[in-house]
Design a protein that fits this description.
Helices cover 38% and strands 26% of the residues. With 208 residues, the chain is an alpha/beta fold. The strands form two sheets. It has a seven-stranded mixed β-sheet with strand order 3-2-1-4-5-9-8, with helices on both faces. The longest helix is centred in the first third of the chain and has 18 residues.
Amino acid sequence: MQAPAAAERNKGPILAVLREYVGPGAHAGPGVLRVLEVGAGAGLHAAHFAQALPQTLWQPSDIDPRALRSIAAYVEAMQVPNVLPPILLDVSQGWETWGGTQPATLDLLVSINMMHIAELRCTEGLFKGAGVLLKPGGVLFTYGPYAVDGRISPQSNVDFDRSLRQSNPAWGLRDTSLLRQLAEANGLHLERMVDMPANNKSLIFRKQ
């Protein structure tokens, strides 16, 4: 199992926000809440969140086969029964390739620390998929560092953005104004922005 330090640090603050949307009393509908996590990485988040939110059925995914093995190992080690076997998923491809997920069946779509280390087409694909696969009223939850209306702050995020673009010109912090446009083009709206530790943000997009 991989053991990313950042995931260990941020799992608690992220879970606190997620509870507001899938915790007891946060969802009026009966039954299990279906969750798809794209770019699940090592799998620590999937196992931790699913264990803390037993009313969810959590589907982790990643584009890297090594990540899929790590996810499976985390789930087995933590003995979490409500996590489905991880699937290989390229978010830049059409939703039809997303492991058989059907339109309007997801309550929650989760993407943590993906946008800034992926090409823009991955972010575009995420919103297109969310627009099709989320139920009306469903939530796209994203987390990471962002530019806000053309401005990056503080200086550590400016430096981080520069280093990302030096590594790969297609990477970098995505701007919330662009994300709003992508959301609206796919039947969602940015409902809330939550300041998080280490100069990150949680963004809550709601399917209309």
